[in-house]
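User: Hey, my collaborator sent me this sequence without any context and asked if I could get a structure. I don't really work with proteins. Can you help?
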Amino acid sequence: MASKTTSTVSYPYPSTLNISNFVSLKLTKNNYMLWKTQISGLIESQDMGGFLDGTYPEPVEFVLKSTVEAEASTTKQEYVMNYDYIMWRRSDRLLRGWIVGTLSEEVLGLAELETTITNHLLEQTWQYL
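Assistant: No problem. I've predicted the 3D structure and written it out in structure-token form, which is a compact way to encode the shape of the chain:
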């Protein structure tokens, strides 16, 4: 059974939000400024901007856990999933879904943007947009 570490960081995760209440436009070649105003307002209001500007950097995926085994008088070390990474990834993917969900098919096809977004490059994708 995999064990996990206790979280030391809290990441926002507004999962019950209906994004279409905040972003009524799909991004096209002709409405960038209007779209960016709407999506930026949503992202800022939900404290998710740190995933785009690097304020919430990606934590390491695994951490070293030490366990003292009293009977054998030894210390066992193993790598376990970092709970902070799990929580960060969850929020990061939610935000990525918001952005991708507001792009038109036309924009998704530009410059292999869809591939960029699915390769864990949310910050760079946001800067590109």
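In plain terms: The two ends are 42 Å apart (CA to CA). You can pass these tokens on to your collaborator as they are.
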